[in-house]
Amino acid sequence: MAQVLDSGSVVVADWHRSADSKEFFSRILHKKRRRNFGLLEAPVMPPNVAVDTVHYKIFITGKSGVGKTALAARLAGLNIPNMHYETTGIETTVVYWPVKLRESGRVLFFRLQLWDCGENALRRFDHLLPSCKEQVDAILFLFSFTDRASFDDLSNQIARGSEPCDRVVKLVVGTKFDLFMHTDVTEREVSRFQEVWGLPVFRMGGDVSNVSNLGEVAPLLNCLAEHLWHQDCVAARSTILPVSTQSEAATVVHV
């Protein structure tokens, strides 16, 4: 079971609210709205500010209608469609998110390429799921608070999504959390799921009116960045350390 990091243990939590972050977050905003970055585009920093960019591939999976495409749009600050439509193939969305590492104070831009594929397309075409999981760094497992079947299917989703992905960050996102009048999943059931699976569960609303609220997406993006960076650091240590030292390091940082 992968280690669940405490929020803010690797990156500075709520850094987007501090004054020294404005220079960096201004590069992903335009007229107080998020910039839309294409596959070959990136934030441009002043020549005197050197910032490294780290690249990761994220696969978003879940039953049809849980809000995979809407979550990708929300994380990128893009317009969210009012009407649901089935994704007919693979769609990718690029998200840039700056973070400040707690220990070193170093600032990094995380480039997250979100992969989303419709459930029916995955069933029809055998090559799509392997393509989504190829060289993937993290998987977001989605369920909807208004769809009981999507929550009950989480264990199957995690089992299917984790094979053959060995060292992959796994997070769970519950969508449409603000539609509490129609919820089919209780907080007790979510807590029980977290205890059994040892995976963080994030709650996202279904409101499409405010897609540029950094505070709404910051907890999930920061957590994703923390686990991805921690995973890379552990992998780097295991690569450069002698075999006799690896077991000692594993007792300090275990994945």
UniProtKB/TrEMBL annotation:
SUPFAM superfamilies: P-loop containing nucleoside triphosphate hydrolases. GO terms for molecular function: GTP binding; GTPase activity. It is found in: Cytoplasm, Cytoskeleton, Cilium basal body. GO terms for biological process: cell projection organization; exocytosis; protein transport. Gene3D superfamilies: P-loop containing nucleotide triphosphate hydrolases (3.40.50.300). Keywords: Cell projection, Cilium, Cilium biogenesis/degradation, Cytoplasm, Cytoskeleton, Exocytosis, GTP-binding, Nucleotide-binding, Protein transport, Transport. Pfam families: Ras. The keyword Ribonucleoprotein does not apply. Belongs to the small GTPase superfamily. Rab family. This is Ciliogenesis and planar polarity effector 2.
